[in-house]
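This part of the workshop introduces the protein records we will be handling. The question running through the whole workshop is how a given chain folds. To make this concrete, we reproduce a full record directly below:
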Amino acid sequence: MTDTPIREGLAPIRDRSLSFAVPARDVRGRVIRLDASITAILAAHDYPPALAQLLGEALVVTAMLGATLRENGGGLTLQAQSDGPVSLLVCDYNAGQLRGYLRGEPDTPAGDLATMFGSGHLAITLDQTEAAERYQGIVPLEGDGIADAIEQYFRASEQLPTLIRTAVAGNTVTGYSAGGLLLQYLPRGEEGRARLFAEDDGTPEPEDWQHMRTLAATVTPDELNSPDLSEEALLWRLFHEEEVRLIPGPTPTRGCRCSLAHIKDVIERFPETERAEMRGADGMIGVDCQFCARVWRIAA
């Protein structure tokens, strides 16, 4: 993709992903906006506010991380399991298509991860391509939110200093919108130079990262989620003194891979004796997709 110079004043585009880089500071990042996609996902289950906020944040983080993959290769899954009020959360990104679901008690109180999940873990599963070996990283469910847990994952597992900010607004009546900012310091720099920074060896935090992290941390939830502030204008506000290169990314959309043909193909792989046990009184097999909140009736 061709780099685009940063400039102020472009109209906002909803459901959009925009990558950026600041080569002089060895920093890269992404801004994402979700509108129709997140409304469709959250409205499918009519979640109470605390659960909608939690899943919304996870969807924003998943979309930002997933958009760093090649458009034609693999996908990313974010999954949390626990023994608390929210027992399961799953978000999935594949080539721009985003989906998510959680299972939790309706009266789950809003709070940090320990309050909402109890004891559990968060797994990030990465499939770069169909031929590549699957990679999975696991971190504890600790921190104020999903973004905190992912920041800790990158620091501890990848030695990749990371800042993540998210904002989710709306409800089932008005619809939802969300925004996110991801900033990462590249320890080896854009050109593959010698390692510049590693927290575990006591190396002081680089001034370039301190500077960029401080600027990025000033972003507000209103700015992340404003319908009147484009992604370019947001980056201009934060980094207008820097040379920022912009690279358009894939447009996030709500996508569920279930379809009549796919489900029928899966069911037909079962032996007839097992399919007979699945059939209801009407002779049909019911398949419940939690992601799209739809029950498929299959004659097989």
